[in-house]
Amino acid sequence: MSEKRSAGEWREFVSGCLDFRPAEGVYRIAREMFTEPELFSLEMEHIFEKTWVYACHESEISNNNDFLTMRAGRQPLIISRDGAGNLNAMINACQHRGATLTRMSKGNQSTFTCPFHAWCYKNDGRLVKVKAPGEYCDDLDKSVRGLKKARIASYKGFVFVSLDVDGTDTLEDYLGDARIFFDMMVAQSPTGELEVLPGKSTYTFDGNWKLQNENGLDGYHVSTSHLAAAMRSRGGWPSGNWLSAIVPSPFWVALPRLKRCILAHLRGEICQGLAIVRTGSN
């Protein structure tokens, strides 16, 4: 469409894409939900560029001057631990002409120098050097020309960023009850600390975030497409088999009941070693 849709038109569009008839066992979503460019732009603007987004684990930038790069929505970011050990999130673009400061995925350095005009920034975002300063006006104030920053916070070592610099919601408020799962992961470590092992695989595909999310939620394909990995984590139930992956399924205990079980476990009211509970066998 050449003209932007109004809020009412978007509600009508989304409603028209949904075909939910539980009594008939029909749960369909039109493929336009996955392909509409304008909808994607709105999702980037109002979801990924307005809320807290996972960036990394603190163990990935454990040393002073460590950094890595990532994206929050459409914005490229540098996540750094500066010389004082503080975490920083900065837009990966020079404030002079917008050139990308670093194309490295990770590293260790105390400054970032623009490859275009050599403006130099500390890894906390401060502009510390300008090439040929005499060519600029006398009132060039480096202190107000640092890198644009995002909010950054860590919960139990898990680092999140938010591009909404005027936001008032804390990371803990945003995570809400999901903190329980972070607490459980950390509680499995005798020292209360976790470490992300180095190495990763990166894949590029034609599709937006919902296609990847749809695949991640699909546990039915695991024992076929990922057979070798699945066999290493295969176990047995009294009836049937299971894989040690958490996937949505009508056989899983409803979240409120599971939450009560988890809370009881964390309070030491049930035996050590929380087992995943199912309501039936298949």
From TrEMBL:
Any idea which UniProt keywords this protein has? 2Fe-2S, Iron, Iron-sulfur, Metal-binding, Oxidoreductase
| Protein's UniProt keywords contain Oxidoreductase | yes
**Which InterPro entries is this protein grouped with?**
ARHD_Rieske_2Fe_2S (IPR015881), Rieske_2Fe-2S (IPR017941), Rieske_2Fe-2S_sf (IPR036922), Rng_hydr_dOase-A (IPR001663)
Every copy of the Rieske domain together lies at 53-161
Please give one Pfam family short name: Rieske
Any GO MF annotation of the entry: oxidoreductase activity
Top-level taxon of the source organism: Bacteria
Family membership, please give it.
Belongs to the bacterial ring-hydroxylating dioxygenase alpha subunit family.
What's the protein here called? Answer: Rieske (2Fe-2S) iron-sulfur domain protein
Q: Source species, please?
A: Paraburkholderia atlantica
Biological classification of the source: Bacteria, Pseudomonadati, Pseudomonadota, Betaproteobacteria, Burkholderiales
